[in-house]
Write a structure and sequence with these properties.
5-stranded mixed β-sheet, globular, binds zinc ion, signal, Peptidase metallopeptidase domain-containing protein
Length: 224
Amino acid sequence: MRFELLAGLLALTCVGACANATPREQEIAECRPGEIATWADGRDRPALGKPLVFVYWDSGAPTWFSSAQVMELLKRSSQAWAGCGIESRVSALLGNAPLPAGAVVVQWSEAGSRGNFGLANLGQRTLALSPAMFQLLRTRNPSYPAEQTLQMVVSHEMGHFFGLMAHSRRCIDVTSYYTDGKGGNCYARDRSQLKTVVEYRSILPTACDIQRCRIANGLPVNAP
Ligand SMILES: [Zn+2]
């Protein structure tokens, strides 16, 4: 009886498979009170659109990312952000089809990404990805699964369109920056865990990303 009660509490705290979760996985699944912190480098705001409409234009994509693969990644990130309570849709831009009103164009563009893996431009409604940065990643670290990096970049940049403008100071969050460039480091429950993986940051939004997104959009923190 007591064991069952304990198990019930754990399930509530960890939302599912907690028993076998690594510390990193637990940090992804659970947002503890007081854990949300940002670098205060932007002001969160409501999502750019309701629903958010993302349209993928595959022109100039690296040859090792097929359109179908990128579409899958985009849909996975979009679905992962659904916990925010803001609907989002993903479709492919085909031929000369007109852009849906208010659509955000996901495109491969060196100019648009300005030396970053990806860049969200809310004014121009573009989510730009850098072919050169993904080429560099492939050259420097050919064994690293680039698909995971792309998933992370897409999830992060989508977060800006959902209204998360400040970067998280919580290392695990997909909206995080590891440092502020001035000597400040991101926060982790156990910083020794950072060295256990090549990339500590989650590739999909974490429970804290979702919680902050709900706050930015004026929604109750605990989803029904
Ligand atoms: Zn960002």
